[in-house]
């Protein structure tokens, strides 16, 4: 481990000194692109702009009008609505994933999709999701929609052009670049259930920068209350209402009286401020300066699992004076830890671009991005401290920062083909850093009650010592006497980062690439790319891609691509550690995630992480029939050494009488954790780590069609986008996943997803109707072997919005998402603790939502 290098510090200082060096226009103005030409795209190409219809790979382009027609305010949700193969789920009681939600594109986790802003890589968030794919990708929610001119979604592997992460595709956010005009928005709404009220204010302004430049500023303020779709906690091991009704529990009953649910399931509360600046200045016909940057701050509060009397946390213990104490003296009705994440995110990009000659164009740039998450826990305790425990903790921070230098060049050659042969080439240098900042000492401290009989009241043979003999009620011969109680270490719900599990993980890399593309004939376009990358922690990799498009007749073409890709595990995925409450078998237990390269994980059988490698295939048809355009694209992604968390290994005290159900050599032996120096090992019930020892095959089809017509009643547009996606293991995985996890990996998410939109404009009146379709899915439960299954039916949810232009400047809109208040099927099993719906599902389970919005443009 080492600290951030001097070159990063220098780059940050330079970015701060020259924030106004800003970006030249990445694409032509919308007014410069005719309807016949279609939307111009740059994503996935080097040195030549093409229309969407002419692209050799599938690309979706959404204008600012398209983005505004979606009622969501979170850019993640906007993409989910517009791109069927982009899926997103709500993540309650999921640590930082409750605030930074992981998504998928074409069945691949977020970190296998490269995110760009103005065609420059966007930095990652500091969050590494706990469990599953261990995703660490950019926080797309930090990009306000009011700052966007358009979004380009490349649904194809492009690692050979852009480097690590672009296995599933590329999302390119292009910022507004107007030098005049003001846009203002205000919106408010809430769910039919009467909760989750939210409001938003946003604005954008374009300003001239001298005679040859622009500065475009965007800002957004957003505030949302939490939601709750739970029922009262009542499980076989503890039922709130039944316990409250028992004699002697009157104080508990009084504490929970009037509380509908001691453990909410829903969306956390959120407050956010998001800003962007984009600017550019033309020095001459051959030189442009550009720069853009962002700052985002947000804070959200969710919750963990409810701690009930006798759950291992709320247990009686004997204090130093021999009296019996229980956390119920702090929390008479038990407690549900409250978890707050404060996220700060900023980025700066600057560069110069232009033409050195008629035969050589260049783009030189530098960028820096940083994301920091600061956690706070309240309404909880460090059980091992007993009555001396505080009830609020700072368990530590997560920080991810990146610095990159990049040089891109394009040379066109006339070699006698139908068009120029464009040679794009370049190089990049990239530094990444990830830091786990130590928490407050009491958040990880191992107090006296982390071991039995801390005050020496009993002897090893069950007799009272002289000090113990004076304690009324003490029975050293009774193993259930509170003197022997052992409770957990650290702030309950999320123990703080101790010095042993804190530190900085850095790496650097550099890359060289070349890209050739040309219209070989009037009907044939070909492209090829080659990229070499060298990582300080993973060595070298050479990847490539070829793509082409052939137009048989006007309005009908075939396109396809073949390429290889890779993704280097991030420093965060290599270094993150976490101990939290999870449900490995439907029952909440303290579960520890440890870095694959750590002594702890090594004792459990882990091996150091390796890069993931992919082979991508696509084959598609595109065409148009008058006003109707369509595309059909098949894809196949073969992913080797896929990174994922193993199934949780149960921690056992006696290997002779228990096994973990996965490994046959008792790697879950508690002694292994103790020998590895894990603080609180005595109270951890499960352990797991990330590995990349298995392969998958993902394949599917994207179908997109659109039709627009003008008639006497106005202009009507109809679009339909459908995705089918299926993944499977490519080889045995019995040593990594139990039967339940294997089944759910393949079957948990719906395989079919569709979005169907009709929009109509008639003078000052506008109407948008959208249907969101989710296909069937099946989930398994392995609590009682053999597995049992539940099939969730298909769902259709309708969104409706109507708008009216009060003047040429002001438009009022009202609408509803899920207007018929449709909910997915309730869960029949597995989902403990008051959970009614499959909370990890990509099918929304919040119910209907209504809103009103006003927009003004000057």
UniProtKB/TrEMBL annotation:
Q: How does it sit in the membrane?
A: Multi-pass membrane protein
| Segments traversing the membrane | none
Q: Where is the signal peptide?
A: 1-24
* Matches recorded under InterPro entries: Beta-barrel_TonB, Beta-barrel_TonB_sf, Plug_dom, Plug_dom_sf, TonB-dep_rcpt-like
Signal as UniProt keyword: yes
Which residue numbers delimit the TonB-dependent receptor-like beta-barrel domain? 292-819
Q: Report the main location listed first in the record.
A: membrane
A Gene Ontology cellular-component term:
cell outer membrane
Coiled coil, from the record: none
Which is a Pfam family this sequence falls into?
A: Plug
Q: Does the keyword Zinc apply?
A: no
Localization (cell): Cell outer membrane
Gene3D superfamilies in the cross-refs: TonB-dependent receptor, beta-barrel domain, TonB-dependent receptor, plug domain
The TonB-dependent receptor plug domain sits at 52-170
The UniProt family comment states: Belongs to the TonB-dependent receptor family.
Q: Which protein, by its recorded name, is this? A: TonB-dependent receptor
